[in-house]
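We append the chain.
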Amino acid sequence: MVLATLSLLLAGCGGPSPRAWATSVCQALTPWRAEINKLTSSTQQQMTAQTTPAQAKENLVRLFAGAEQASETARRKVEEAGVPETDHGAEISAGFRASLSKMRDAYGRARDTIDKLDTSQAGPFYTGVRAAVDTLNKEYDASALDTSQLNSTELKEAFDEVPECR
């Protein structure tokens, strides 16, 4: 009985290898990056499109909600990837999740801010949208995770070598 319990404990201690973890993380981030790139392009189009403020508001709220959801999906997939079996693996995994959480929250705040804007006058509406997007960009930049600062040689190598991360 003691041996069986010890076996279960030891089996539960190991996380994925650095390479497997990097693969999972990059698989989670690839569709997220595509969604964010699409959002950025669509947001720029909405800012210059000949639409009414009400139409622009509806579109931007939908776009930011999509980015918020995509960020949460990526965060959840990184969480599901587990903790890589490497030095500082828990910290590194937590850093990725925290970064994605901050990005998710920034998109949610931008969505909420734009959703509260009055659309009766185009000038003030678009001024409010620009302010919300400026704040989003600052929050987004501040939440970015610099993978070059990983505290694990194995993970740095894995991110460089895994095809999913290129």
Confidence is low (pLDDT under 50) at residues 1-12. The radius of gyration is 20 Å.
